[in-house]
Write a structure and sequence with these properties.
Length: 322
Amino acid sequence: MGNSYPDRTNASGVWKINEISKNKVTHKNFPRGSTRGLFSGGGEPAQSNIIDYVNIETTGDAADFGNLSVARIIPATFGSATRSVALGGGGTVTNTIDYVQFNTLGNSSDFGDATVARRAAGGLSNDTRGIAAGGYTGSANVDTIDTVEISTLGNAIDFGDLTAVFNSKSGCGSSTRGIWGGGSPGPSNVLEFVTISTLGNTVDFGNLTLARDGPASGSSSIKGIWAGGGPVVNNIDTINIGSLGNAVNFGDLTIIASYPGAASNSKRVIFAGGGHPDGKLNVISHITINSAGDAVDFGDLSVARTEVSGSSNGHGGLALTS
């Protein structure tokens, strides 16, 4: 990235249009500044309304951001460059959709309602549209896929259907393609995808190396990552988003974890929390997307919890990332 202009976290100085154009067109990035990852909700074991945040480029412990409007486990979370949105969640399932602004600290505000009240839907997004797939209503799994326009407020609308009824699938993608992996019942190794800009049902992509429900997932614009899940594993898988095919092994988490959360930028995925045979985890670890290998320590969540959901303002679904 050119360095002749300030980033959005340091707005003083002269902005050179030719440099901004060069970075946007040639390097496919933009001076966003640091990438903020949020980890929302979870079980402590009681349902939590906690939102923690970290700067993905650095390492260190998470800090308090604010609170969800409704305490819940496993909301479907997704982000644009400016907003993080949380759809649904449980234990007592809700159709609540709420949101926060990444660049400020504070509590969530009402966004609208999901088409079906449920928990454990899988969220993904590009800079325009957020999508949540599957989930559990409290009595049954569903194949429902909801979508919202992130920059507006309002109720979700129907996008299409998954290949089968699932909860606890985890999603990530590029600016054009969204992919979900894993899920329950099963556990499942199924990978399926949609084109984000259209409406319609998912199509088969391939398989994970290991069947699991509730994995954490993140991506650059090129590679998707799935890690952990239940039954409790530490396996990390990767795929090339632009092609079809089965995942390959990337490495291992620092500790086995079911239902961790994840947030990513174009270079790094961080994983937080989860369940373990010895109890709830506060562990945060990270990988570098372009180099296969095991995760390394990043820091700790403010409170140990499982069934936490992650989002960021710099993931692979955003066309222009730092």
